[in-house]
Design a protein that fits this description.
The chain is of the alpha+beta class. It has helices at about 1-15, 15-50, 65-70, 85-90, 120-125, 155-160, 210-215, 255-265, 275-290, 290-320, 320-330, 335-375, 390-410, 415-420, and strands spanning about 55-60, 80-85, 95-110, 110-115, 125, 130, 135, 150, 165-170, 170, 185-195, 205, 220, 220-225, 245, 245-250, 270-275. Strand 5 (about 125) and strand 6 form a beta hairpin.
Length: about 425
């Protein structure tokens, strides 16, 4: 049978221009199919690693998905706030290594404002436990002297063209037109975070004391009529926070996570909920992951179209090869040999297209990978195939084998006499 494969390669070489275009079509189809699969896996990993290194996310009792939406993705609003005394009690738990408070509710030109402590820049991780880094400036000091300092994410800086020293004012509320502004208490941008591809990029970070300071002359979500406290006087007040929105908690031992989670869920002072970020994000992905399956289906259809093009090319070439096939039949080649010859050609074209597609995908990932990681938080490996790619490749090769069966069946039906004496 080895001579049949050599003969198939020689025949394909004689028609290299036409088959070359078919191979490239298959290669592009495979590149898109595996590219979508690789991007799907990277997007899911990036989504699940919007926060990493955090053992528990704790907030007021609600659904785990809703807690993750507002605590991590800055979407929606909390059903209730958490008392500061509860945060201190949880932070004092012997099993807790660190706890970072999170306070939400204000915005700046559509971007969320996050009140937190300086520990946020020390303990927050994303991706594969990557720490936050500053592309310019420094973190806010967290002291009374630096109460009106702000650190902005990369998207905030790029979209609004902000730099260090920029003065900004915050709005009361989570976005939308017509919001009341804290115009009398401007902030100064002292730091710009490097791009992470996570919600951190779309966030303005200030201290918890700053959250209290801008609301000193507010009550029930509105300014108190006739009362204005200038920014230079806010330091005379007690700026210790009374409530926060949520908290991120890291434990000394991962083995204690379920015990601490149970203790928080049974907290006596107020109803709280502690969720494991990985579990909650997996539930959330099931809700928003419909698009990935749609894209994968579209890519599979493109592969089918590419293979259908190969079938059309092989079928069209049979008329040119009728004499060639008839000569093979006349020297003793049976229908099985003819079918093997045609199927081998289809499989060879599919294998070549798949190999070129893999190489092309590796080149794209090599050059576009850093840009995707910095802008979208997607880590795409150039040479490492995910476990989901091998079944897809196997499906492509099987489809190529089946695609070759149609022209093989047609070739076997060509009669010897019809091949030696073709009609004009």
């Amino acid at each position: 049978m080895r001579y049949l494969f050599r003969l198939a390669l020689a025949s394909a070489w004689n028609r290299r221009a036409t088959l070359g275009l078919t191979v490239m079509a298959i290669a592009l189809s495979v590149t898109m199919l595996l590219g979508v699969e690789r991007a799907r896996v990277a997007a899911r990993e990036g989504f699940e690693q919007s926060v990493s290194g955090t053992d528990l996310v704790i907030g007021a009792r609600t659904s785990p998905v809703q807690l993750m939406l507002y605590a991590v993705f800055r979407l929606g609003e909390a059903t209730n706030n958490v008392r500061w005394s509860s945060f201190e009690a949880i932070a004092a738990n012997p099993a807790v290594a660190w706890a970072v408070p999170v306070s939400l509710g204000d915005s700046h030109k559509g971007f969320a404002v996050l009140g937190t402590s300086t520990g946020y820049f020390e303990h927050f991780r994303y991706g594969y436990r990557k720490p936050l880094t500053l592309s310019a400036g420094r973190a806010f000091s967290g002291t009374l002297d630096g109460v009106f300092e702000a650190v902005i994410g990369a998207d905030v800086a790029d979209s609004l063209h902000y730099g260090l020293g920029q003065h900004i004012t915050l709005s009361h509320g989570a976005g939308g037109p017509g919001l009341a502004e804290h115009a009398d208490k401007p902030f100064t941008v002292v730091g710009i975070l490097a791009r992470t591809g996570t919600p951190v990029d779309r966030t303005v970070h200030i201290s918890l004391e700053a959250i209290e300071a801008i609301h000193l002359d507010w009550q029930a979500g509105a300014p108190i009529p006739g009362l204005v406290i200038p920014p230079e006087y806010v330091r005379k007040f007690d700026l210790k926070p009374k409530t926060i929105t949520a908290m991120l908690v890291g434990l000394k031992s991962r083995g204690a996570v379920f015990k601490v989670q149970r203790d928080v869920n049974q907290f006596v002072a107020e109803p709280l909920l502690a969720v494991l970020p990985g579990v909650a994000l997996d539930q959330l992905w099931r809700v928003v992951g419909v698009a990935e399956r749609t894209m994968l289906a579209v890519s599979a259809m493109i592969v089918v179209i590419g293979l259908a093009g190969m079938v059309a090319v092989v079928l069209a070439s049979l008329n040119e090869r009728r004499r060639e096939l008839a000569i093979l039949r006349s020297v003793g080649a049976g229908p099985r040999h003819i079918a093997t010859l045609v199927v081998a050609e289809s499989v060879a074209a599919t294998v070549a297209g798949s190999a070129i597609g893999l190489a092309l995908l590796a080149v794209i990932a090599l050059f576009a990978g850093p840009w995707l990681e910095s802008n979208f938080g997607m880590t795409i490996h150039a040479w490492v195939a995910s476990s989901g790619e091998w079944p897809l490749l196997g499906g492509v090769l099987l489809a190529g084998l089946l695609a070759g069966a149609i022209p093989a069946w047609r070739a076997c039906r060509l009669a010897l006499a019809d091949g030696l004496s073709p009609r004009l």
